[in-house]
## 1
Amino acid sequence: IVHNGEITSYGTNKRYVEMFGYQCTLMTDSEVVCYIMDLLTRKHKLPLEVACMAVAPMYHEEIDAIDGGSAELWRMVRETYRPAMLNGPFSICVGMNDGPEVLMGLTDRKKLRPLIAATARGGKTVYLSSEECAVRVLGEEVDEVWAPRAGNPIIIEKGLGLVRTGETDPLEGREIAFA
């Protein structure tokens, strides 16, 4: 995990993951974010997009404005995983390898901490950074640079490349069914 910011919901988040057997021995907000993502994706087997919806959900007013069936899923995820919601200013990058190797970037719902994405080498290389200059200093010819929308994940999967750009709703283009 790479984390920029401060998780003000640390106490609630810590108690939540401890209910599932995790022990927060480092006492850092980065540690609790790792455990939340592990809990949601590995133990609860949520798709990564849904786990991101849980930690950085839309505001109630935004959910109420959605037309169609995805509003109900947003409500259900927000209510079910309320203690997993991260509050405070943050941008995070989380790498996972339980299943496909994935890198995910996410900001808080107000985007109080910066996060930019960039591609190079015809899209074969993807960068996540809090500063555009950090990407440009690498000396590679950068193809594209963008800033994801607040609370929307950027997802890069090994072998597939850029799966989500962070510019669209996490559910767009994906059918997610729950039993």
## 2
Amino acid sequence: MNRPFLENLIKCPSPAGNEVAIQNLWLNELKPYAHTLETDMAGNATAILNPNAPFKVLLAGHCDEIAFMVNHIDDKGYLSVVQVGGISPKLALGSRIRVLGKGVIKGVIAVPPHHKGGAKDDVKIEDLTIDIGAKSQAEAAELVAVGDHVIYDVDFDYLLNDTFAGRALDNRTGSYIIAEVIKALSKETLSVGVYAVSTVNEETTMGGAHFAAAHIVPSIAIACDVTFATDSVGSDPKKDGDVKLGGGPVISIGSQINTKINALIKAAAKKHNLPLQVELTPSSTGTDADKMRFSGKGVPVALISLP
């Protein structure tokens, strides 16, 4: 495992709509391995092997992360925010944050002290107040503007039993994995073209995946994302499926997933003695696979996820 590369991806902020820095990092990592590197007007970054092959395999891992966005600065210098993707206001209370303004500005999300009532049970995004230490609107506005992104002030930690915690593992790991696939395949003689795309905007519009598939016109596409492990606290395997942390990659089964691609994945896993897990996505996957499938004349898709 190339830990420094994954660590650098995690440390690089990339809220949906502001992914330029991480795309540059990703492309620089793959310069020695890809036959061709490309970007597009959506902001996607693509590393290609064997670009002249008629059969094209698109591998997509999105690089953007959920975040907040500043939508107001009050007269005392406090910031209000809106959501960028499915970020939870409940988890934000009391957290340290970074505002990506004129530089990186540190702050905290304020919460009333417990002995004065504490936070409401039904916390909403409009209840969040960010304190960056400014004494006035004018002072805050020198460093922060409406539209600036806000992320949590945390990167990564190594835990017991070779486990790992980090900001935006959804989907730094997907972007990381498809890059490592390009590195591994660069040593092989390929009969197909492989297009690894670090896609943008999955957390908000999935527009990056649509742009990528419409431009590349792949023969097949595989999204690489994350899914929930059901051996965690509060999960019910009867309702949520049986997916274990460290139990191997997870393939998706559902109406949008191509069964022939899944059969090829299963055969490859069996050949190399690799464990596979299964999750059900009856109507939609909630990943880039959904958008890629409907691009052009239609693209057969599969989804492989990291629990």
## 3
Amino acid sequence: MSYFLAALVAPVLGALLYRTLHGRNRAVRLVDGFVYVAVPVLVAIQVLPEVIEERAPSLLLFVAAGAFLPTTFELASRSLARHTDDLAIVVTLLGLVVHEALEGAALAPVGGPIEPAFAAAVILHRIPVGLILWWLVRPRHGIPMASAAVGSLVLATLAGGLLASRIALPADATGLHLFEAFVAGTLLHVVFHQGRHDHTHHDPDHIH
């Protein structure tokens, strides 16, 4: 139960950490730099083991598609460019919700014992996920939407835990892995494209 509760709290701690650090002048660049490093690391941790274990280099193509398709749409149409990054954030959030629900099911206090190393890895990586999500949503849509985005991760985890006995990966989870790879690519896009723009020009929390 303690692992599950920690997993519920972890994304919220990430958001609070952002608020605490980003309110200090010297920490602004540290937070932004952390996000630019943490996102590629999280994507690599998520995707590369599947590429190696499943021998599925196609996952890398889906990461690339998630990263570059939004840019293609933006170049094709100015009207699309206004909404592409918001759509990419929605896709990213949807993918995170699915991922968090599966993790919630894995950490649910039912069934056999949970490996402490696995639980620690899951809990610790959820803290930067909460920070990154707040970092993305807050400058564009304000505190209420950022809170709702982080809250959706908590609710997804809770739902995964409550429905753990009914949640099971299909025998062939290739489709899920491809979807998660695409979502990882969209996360890279919004962080390095629109995220950089927002935090350079529009973030009201950014102190110059």
